[in-house]
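for ur thesis appendix - protein-glutamate O-methyltransferase. copy paste whatever u need, i formatted it the way the template wanted (i think)
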Amino acid sequence: MGLLNDAEFNRLASFIYREVGIKMPPGKKTMLEARLLKRLRILKLPDYKSYCDYLFSPAGMTAELHQLIDVVTTNTTDFFREPKHFELLQQNLLPHLANGPCRGRTLRVWSAGCSIGMEPYTLAMVLAEFRERTPGFRFSILATDISTQALEKARAAVYDEERVAPVPKHLKFKYLLRSKDRSRGLVRVVPELRQLVTFQRLNFMEEFSFPDPMDIIFCRNVIIYFDRPTQEVLFQKFCRCLRGGGFLFIGHSESITGMDLPLNQVAPTVYSRHATRRADG
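the 3d part is after this line
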């Protein structure tokens, strides 16, 4: 089996950028080649040229596109990742929203780029705990990702025991079930918590909207894979989906400095949408 040549790599890289916004510079060629090798073996294709021919055929566009996206997307995630975000949410933002803008209605939260579900289930734990202390508080969580494979894992909600190490002990006891076969070292999120999260496939490069604006958007460590112009366009889309006075959380390695966005910083990597502008404006 030959190597992925430059013409094939450039064709795939251009297609990946158009479809999902992820830049594949020449330095990623070896990585792409290695990740696609498994697909070649599964499809019983002799080389990368055959793979490209199949991918860009009508049948490939139907059957293989999602597989390619799963190959190139990175699903790095953890429970309670960047914990200061969840501290701010519990101590400041949820009391503010529950006693003001969201009084008498459902708080809407979106985990954008949810990977295999650890972020939205963390949010579900935090919100469920707050609900117990706050009579009348209601919330919904939407979790989206482009990877169908990641979403399948998220819905299953089964994780290796070491992956749940960051979850506080009292929340582990309350929201996680250990496998009956302890030797497998697996845990599963309890049904009551799984039911609080709705998972859905969404491609950021396509136009998207929701029937009601979001109060909180978590999009952390996702835009680092996009170039700067794509990042700004994406954040503009998020702002159109975010209610005035709502909050956007981004990753600590990410920045919106210099972008023309209707946002005010309220904490490191946490922003509030201008309340004076319409959520669809």
